[in-house]
Specification:
- The chain is low in regular secondary structure.
- It has two domains: 39 residues, no CATH class; 69 residues, no CATH class.
- 13% of the residues lie in helices and 6% in strands.
- It has a two-stranded antiparallel sheet with strand order 1-2.
- A hairpin with a 3-residue loop joins strand 1 and strand 2.
- The longest helix has 8 residues.
- The chain is elongated.
Length: 144
């Protein structure tokens, strides 16, 4: 995998030079070994493997969501924009992904408007493009 083929954004230069993607990981990985660098082991292997499947699933229910709908293959980056849309908030420009708009009912507040990424949001909602890093979630919530 070449990072630029998988990821995009202003901070792509902050990504590591090498990313290892395990394919078909049926068993946890306890060590890596090469003639050049030797053996690298996980100190406490039985704690966590660090291996994850790329495939996952999302189950959601509520008055703004259609019932009995399969949304097919989606990207993990679409989950946050979908949740934001359900709260009537737009997807910020710095965020990857788009709301899963085909999951919403026609009566949902999430269907009243659409932003440039396809995420739907309620008209008139004003959200700062990126909350200041120093603010706590309590401070941010108090402003809205």
């Amino acid at each position: 995998m070449i990072i630029q083929e998988q990821l995009a954004g202003e901070q792509i230069d902050q990504m590591p030079d090498l990313a290892i993607v395990w394919r078909n990981l049926d068993v946890p990985v306890e060590a890596l070994e090469s003639p050049r660098i030797g053996r690298v082991e996980i100190p406490e292997f039985n704690k966590r493997s660090g291996g994850h499947w790329h495939e996952g699933f999302l189950i959601a229910a509520g008055p703004d969501l259609k019932q009995g709908v399969s949304l097919g293959h989606r990207d993990l980056t679409d989950v946050a924009p979908t949740i934001l849309a359900l709260f009537g908030l737009p997807t910020p420009d710095y965020m990857d992904g788009a709301a899963m708009k085909d999951a919403f009912t026609d009566e949902s507040i999430a269907v009243s408007q659409q932003d440039s990424k396809g995420a739907r949001f309620r008209a008139g909602t004003d959200v700062p493009p990126h909350p200041p890093a120093a603010d706590s979630s309590r401070d941010i919530a108090a402003r809205h």
